[in-house]
Amino acid sequence: MAATSVHKFGQCISCHAWSPDLSMIAFCPNNSEVHIYKLSEDKWEKVHVLQKHDQIVSGIDWSYRSNKIVTVSHDRNSYVWNQETTGWVPTLVILRLNRAALCVQWSPKENKFAVGSGAKTVCICYYEQENNWWVSKLIRKRHDSSVTSIAWHPNNVLLATTSTDGKCRVFSTFIKGVDAKDSAMGNSADTKFGEQIVQLDLCFCWAFGVRWSPSGNTLAYVGHNSMIYFVDEVGPSAAAQSVAIRDLPLRDVLFLSERMVVGVGFDCNPMVFVADESGLWTTVRDRRLAQDMNHKEFLEIP
């Protein structure tokens, strides 16, 4: 299917995020700035430039409920931006990192966000009203190398990470006074902050993207060995189902439904993976196979 419209924002974009209504996009043109464009009459117009970082902005996430933007940079700093009448106003985040911040993501309830870094550390940040800044609790001494990707479980407590040490891990991020215990969390609310729930190996290769399914029952992650992994029951004795691909390694994954995943990477072509009734994941390699499936069951996005 041909593209309906094309707009060139820049030669190189290091990271980006969409607004909740998809009418605006925030991205870094491979420098220390964040540019915000708005779609107006089928044309994209630059409406804001966020200038606070000193080095390349490496991560952006735009919250869906509160309409806040969080940015992280190689300068080891992070800011939360609130839209006011005068523009976007930054709030300081205390990360306490000695290496570059690499990725960032809001939690589902948006009362926290996580930052992965080159300091082998994950920062879990939350807001302190009395000081008007965001502070962080650090998950230290768990990773042996840079944290490349992070993904929040729908219960707002469990966090999955991938690292260049060839591991995928799941941690508890329960913070007393920030997270309220409820039945939806299950046993997650009984674990201590920073406790490692599971560690999964990727056969001596870098680990890249990681995502939870909409229900949180399945975890998918990819590595530099041209394989994608699926874990249906995350726990201390979890086992990953691996699917090898014949193409270049995948860089990131996204669940379209509970039983359909799309992966993208160095091959420049998206790949689709589906699970059958028994939970066996396979690759959809041609259009005819996809057309034979029940589209309502596989393609409906929750």
Uncertain runs = 286-290, 293-302
Give, in spatial order, the strands making up the sheet with the most strands: 1-2-3-4
How far do the termini sit from each other?
A: 24 Å
Record field, number of beta strands: 24
Order of helices and strands: EEEEEEEEEEEEEEEEEEEEEEEEHH
Q: Can you summarize the main beta sheet? A: 4 strands, antiparallel
As a percent range, the share of strand residues is over 45%
Helix-and-strand structural type: mainly beta
Put simply, the count of helices is 2
Q: Identify the overall geometry.
A: globular
Secondary structure: helix percent: under 10%
pLDDT averaged residue by residue: 89
Our Rg estimate from Cα atoms comes to 19 Å
Descriptive account of the structure:
There is one protein chain. The protein is mainly beta and 302 residues long. The chain contains two helices and 24 strands. It has helices spanning 287-291, 295-299, and strands at residues 15-18, 24-28, 33-40, 43-51, 57-62, 68-73, 78-84, 87-93, 101-106, 112-117, 122-128, 133-139, 147-152, 158-163, 167-172, 196-201, 207-212, 219-223, 227-231, 241-244, 250-257, 260-265, 271-275, 281-284. The strands form six sheets. It has a four-stranded antiparallel β-sheet, with no helix packed on it. A four-stranded antiparallel β-sheet has the order 5-6-7-8, with no helix packed on it. Strand 23 (271-275) and strand 24 form a beta hairpin. The longest helix is centred in the C-terminal third of the chain and has 5 residues, at 287-291. The two termini are 24 Å apart. The model is unreliable at 286-290 and 293-302 (pLDDT under 50).
